[in-house]
Amino acid sequence: MVTALVVGASRGLGASLVEEYSRTGNTVFATSRSQAPKSIGSITYIGGIDVATEHAGPDLVGSLKELASNIDIVVIAAGYFGTESFDEPSWQEEVKMYTTSSIAPVFLVHHLVKAGLLAKGSKIILVSSESGSITLRHESEGGGNYGHHASKSALNMVGKLLSLDLKEKGIAVGIVHVGEKDLPGFMRTEMTKSVGFDKFWDNGGAVTPDEAAKSLIKFIDGFDMEKTGEYWAPRGSRYGMVAESDLNISANNISKETLGPPNWSLERILPRLCSCRGEVMGKTEKQQEDKRRRRQQRAEKDIGA
């Protein structure tokens, strides 16, 4: 049994994670921005935790210190999606999206670690989205929604940096995309409905939060320091990323536009599929080491020339 903390647990994926962890007998702490629901069974709700505010970290720690001595798993699932276009960008909405998605996690994790609630063996999971990938953004999808996409890109980097800072402490940090293969990062939630995306649910094969929660928990069970700092897609994605030790690229899930011209080599194709170093696709540890060695040899050769 584990002790889990889910940040952003009032609805959607967060709420489903809380229910699933509790159903299997674990101790769960769940946060919400507003007044907390009544705690039930192994679930303890902590209200008034608005991650978009600077005092969220201290407030959360203040409540947890009275309830637990150590947290095994932290899942930060809080998110906000405000639609924008080039003609009508929103300063206020963008600030809220950046604060919620990529600024808040830094301060929440900082306060949890400094309070001694996270220690060696603890796991931190940051719920991101493939929508934050720069390389995977195709011209056919168009622009707009700057705050949503860019804040997820920023979150990916935050996860990588946190993993480096916490490596010596033995605390693993994972960045995950929890969507469905047919339409990555897309779930049947109130958030996607609020921006009018519910019209794409059926044709897009949108996954329910309950389905996503079960897949994510299974992934977290096997997540450890060997995978820290990496970007994972437990349910797979339209580009074939799957959370397995021996990853493969599925040709059935990759469009010709993504792959590029027919004469492109795998070396030229792979960069188009990866938006950051944390995205591991079709490369075992040995393959990664071989690639690093070849890169170093080329660099030494260039210096010698």
Question: Would you give an account of this structure?
Answer:
With 305 residues, the protein is an alpha/beta fold. It has helices at 12-23, 56-64, 91-114, 146-166, 190-194, 201-204, 209-222, 256-259, 266-273, 285-304, and strands at residues 3-7, 27-31, 43-46, 73-76, 123-127, 172-176, 231-232. α4 links the parallel β5 (123-127) and β6. α3 packs parallel to α4. The radius of gyration is 20 Å and the shape is globular.
Defining traits:
305 residues; alpha/beta; seven-stranded parallel beta sheet; 10 helices; globular
Biggest pleated sheet: 7 strands, parallel
Order of strands across the biggest sheet?
3-2-1-4-5-6-7
Mean pLDDT equals: 77
Briefly note the structural class of the backbone: alpha/beta
Helix content: 25-40%
Low-confidence runs (pLDDT<50, min 5 residues)? 180-185, 198-205, 238-284
DSSP strand content: 5-15%
The N- and C-terminal alpha carbons lie at a distance of 59 Å
What is the count of β-strands? 7
User: Outline, from the CA principal axes?
Assistant: globular
What is the radius of gyration? 20 Å
Written as H for each helix and E for each strand, in order along the chain, the element string is EHEEHEHEHEHHHEHHH
Q: What's the helix count? A: 10
Q: What is this entry, summarized?
A:
This protein has 305 residues and is of the alpha/beta class.
